[in-house]
Request: fold
Amino acid sequence: MSAETTFKSVQDMEPAAQEGLRRAILSLADGKRLMGIRYSDWLLGAPSIETGIAASSMAQDEWGHARLLYAVLKDFGMDPAVVEHERRADQYANPDALDAPLDDWAAVVVACVVVDGALSVALEGFSEGVYAPTRSRVPKMLAEETFHHDLGVAWFRKLAAGSEQGRSRLREAALSMLASTLAWLTPGDEVGEAQAGAGLVPEGAILRLRFAERYGELLSLVDIDVGAVEPDREGWDPERGRGPGCPDEEAVARARGDLNRMLFVE
Amino acid sequence: MEESLYDVFARKERGEPLRHVGYLNALDDEMARIYAWKTYDEERWFEMCVIPRSAIIPVNRTDGPFASKGSLQ
Reply:
């Protein structure tokens, strides 16, 4: 199918393609919601006030993107309010690397490069796909993501050029996030292949290549050959398109807005 | 790692003069560029730029607001 042919609604697609697209949009939305939470953890702990402001702004961007993506799920017969506010932790489909808080600034920088980078590569894929609602929403999101990329890369280079301890922390954090994030980005299962086969997103190999082109040189600064990293698909959960774990309960309570909703008065 | 002081200038419309909108501290020019956009993003700027305070050369007085070289007063 040519990319010029676009679907205005998911109802016009084959069921297998619908399922692939539903999972991809949900995992991207969950990824952005959790990415926002992990950025927001560093509003006050970042190395400078300016960096804290940037983290705050990026958290807002991620939550805005998540909200837009959740809204698209309406086309799949899902209620976005239920998806956002009523799911259990084990129903979240974010990249595994966002399941736990980021321990230090080096881990935040690596998450910005590796995980937020993978989210953007996946998002970019939608902009080329044949599903009109995601194609039209993506350009503004990608424009905002440019600054996330620039910030992550600038900090990564700075830390990599600094102390041995800094380099070592970057390398450790990158190795802990890469394999599962690459698996999330390139799901080689039946659902993922149905989605690529229907022209909804590029094939996994293309997404992987784009990721390597964008971050390979940067990761080589800490002696990581991204081309040699094997995606970790152990315990793969095809329902969610990710590994077997789930985000911590506190993060999910924040993602759902549990505390905010306790203040609602009927 | 030492930070330097940068001044931020912006204009809303093409043809408007650039005006000073604030300052920031950053480790290098690239970070200054990113922080400026993320910090002073309340308006829809047509153009924004950052200038290291150390690059500003006072002309007629040495006690003006841009006379300090790279550190907050």
